[in-house]
Description:
The chain has 940 residues and is α/β, with parallel strands linked by helices. It has 37 helices and 24 strands.
Amino acid sequence: MAPALPRVGRRTVEALLAANAKDLGECSLVLVHGRYAPGAPPRFTVTLDGEARRVQVRDEASVLGVVAALHEHRSTAASSDVLVLTTGIEDEQLGWDVRGRAVRRKTLTVENAEVVLQRFGATALDPRMYRERWLLEALVEAEPAEDGWPRVGGVLTRDAALRALTAERLGLRAVHGSSGQDGQVTLDADTLLAWSRTPAGPRRFAELGTTERAELKKWLAEVAGPAVPVLLSLAEAGLGHDALPLGLLGAALRDPAAQPDTVLALGGLFGQVMPRRSELAVFTDAVEGTLTRWIADARTSQDARRRVDAVLDRADELADKAGLIPGLTASRFLPSSFTAQLRRTVAEARRSPAVGEAALADLLGHALAGLRPDHVQAAETAVRVARWLSGPEPAVTSVAAAVRAHVSDWGWVDRALTVLWAGDPDGDLETGRDLRALYEQARERRQRLDQEFARRLAAWAAHATARHPDGCLVVENVLDTVVRPLAGQAAPLLLVLDGMSSAVAAQLGEEAERDGWREIVPRPEAGEAPARLAAVSMLPSITRVSRASLLTGEAAGGGQSTETSGFTAFWKRRRKAAALFHKAAIGGEAGHALSHELMTALASDAVVGVVLNTIDEALDNGRHGRGTTWSLADVTHLRELLAAARSYGRPVVLVADHGHVLERGSRADAPTAADGAESARWRTGEVVEDGEIAVHGPRVREGGGAVILPWREDIRYTGRRAGYHGGASLAEVTVPVLVLLPAGEEAPKDWVPLPRELSTPGWWRTRATGDGPESAAVTAARLTTPEHPTPARPTAPSESAPAAEARPSARTEAAPPAAESLGTMVVSSEVYAAQKEYVRKAPEAKVVAAVIDALVTAGGTMSPAALATAISATGRVRRNIEGFVATVQRLLNVEGYPVLGFIDGGHAVKLDVPLLRGQFLPKPKEGETDEAASQGEEKA
């Protein structure tokens, strides 16, 4: 049998014509030994020596066919046209009559090496390529139709040729993100795994010849990693599109004790290409690495999110089909494992906070945690509430202590209850049942606090006045006690958020910090930690009396006219100009967020007050969301006002006139039947029912000085709304006060910063598992409380308040000190010493140790302000905390691993404690441990 003729394609013809361009001036016939590829274009145009020449290619198997084609060409074609005949006929058979009219007077032999040289514009080939016929043939056949092969201008190396061939054969240029900065296709596992999800990519590889597939697979394993052969084997078997989902399921065999049924189930999914266990482990690792990067992109891109969801949903579908779901509950990627871990976290939190924290750590390690913040919030809240429930039973010792505890601790419980009440975001019944159980436990405890508070409130209200508040900051003293001291340097902006509860204030305060604001408070007494301010509303806790009293600086009642005249009169008595803005006077005309009058006032030296009704109106008009949460953007005009205050250098005071309770299921759908109902949460009358308290005294501005107020949140005297106010619960009577400065500005005299670690209760923060049992608040308190503080500001205009009562237990408990801190061990390690060699002007070891220890104690995360305070405790002041953290990152982030870094848009610093231990304090190998133990025994 005669050998098969070499296949000739258009690019080969073009290369031969280019190589013989000089001879084509006299001859128009080219004889080529070979067979023209089926489907290749029979007519095309080439440019030879600057002239466009039309080319016709015909494949002829006989001498008669060759002669007939030549005669036809001579009679019909133009003189510049070229006829290319591919044939297997020997020259002796063609005769001189035909050969004499052909280029070089003979049949040209196709030398693939010469064609490749010409098509790449190379001067020489890698010698290894001459021995690989398959490669040369593939390069000739696969040349891109549009632009051809890239021009190299020198020696064409084997790797460069294979890289170009692979990109073209597999269609990698169409894969998003496959090209590097130099425009070359990046050949790595990431690119090839992304390629496996393209519609035609895997099929293109499967359609290649056997030799070419085998050789490309072997080369790609060398350059792109050992995971690639498994991927390409799946593509050959028609499973390429499921390569990523199958790789995730391979995690089921990580457990050495995996059941035979699991192995068989996986074998059924992989079919005939089931890899060895070691190969599958490598492939699974590569798939998980790629998906980790995709998931990071999915946080900001909907297209990336859809790509991730498609892979993960398919993986779950395959796992369910094969019965692998139970064995993959520990997976870091499957949606089903995320659901299982969420269920376990909430269930374990009910049983034990410590066990719940361990389960939460596993959940936070799930790759989907960043894509499902609502689910993570539910789990974190469950663990937080479990921590609070496991602590000592809180008690109300006085009204003053209670409102301070509420704004700094119990109000966060209210915030958590809102999340628990909303239930599981996906409506999972099992998770929802456990969340509801935690909710009922916490609500019962909170209800006991409200009951005791109401009793003490009634006794206190009977005699409390603005001049004799009995240790409380009352709402009518806020202007004089909080706002007036700030007016010494720059006129403050007072923002009254009608109806803002302590729970809402906690949310807004967190977001304000992320937006570059820093909370400050009056310097505390010696031994006291700084704490958020809170006042007591008028009674009943309604807008008409509480807001008027707040803005006039005295017990009062009335509407906007009373508030405006009283506000300006208050500041006029203190020789200050002032302006107060309500509703329609706030918004500007088209193109302006704020009115001209308001902006003019902000640009002046006047004290400016603005009343924002969004919260109160939303609750009153039916904002019924089960998870009623608030952000700065939710409060109309708030962001714009904060931005204006920053630009004019004004401190900002965020204050409520009263709080609110949410509708979380009244005892009956109908209003509570009661005599003398004046509003949703207060009434007049003589008979006090269960859940109510009778209150009278100078602070009661309605009902002739005597009213009945409900302290239970499920009592209402009017129709159902999203929320209510007016009653005697802590959430309604407590008035949160937040004083904000732009980050970086110095606090006024006798004021100190309030870092997030001190404004947040200890039970709320998620600790790093196994590190630092001590409360971060205790550490921060030790760092921020000066040895010789100045006296705290009084709570009444003319009297000093009694010493603040004890803070909640979460702020005062401290664990015994460890013998050697983690920070000290890290900076004493050999790895740290090696890292330090590469960092010029590295911080002192004690400063780096202090940073590590402070972050460990805080649960791994701290605000920059709190971290700067921790550093200052070592005797070193760091004004540029961002630059300092960048330097410490160079010390701790060994080989680029993210041990330390900024999160939350740069508003928090996070330390990965397990990764820190792994990098600097690696565990000794088992043999080393045994050897050390035996040496110890010998010494003993």
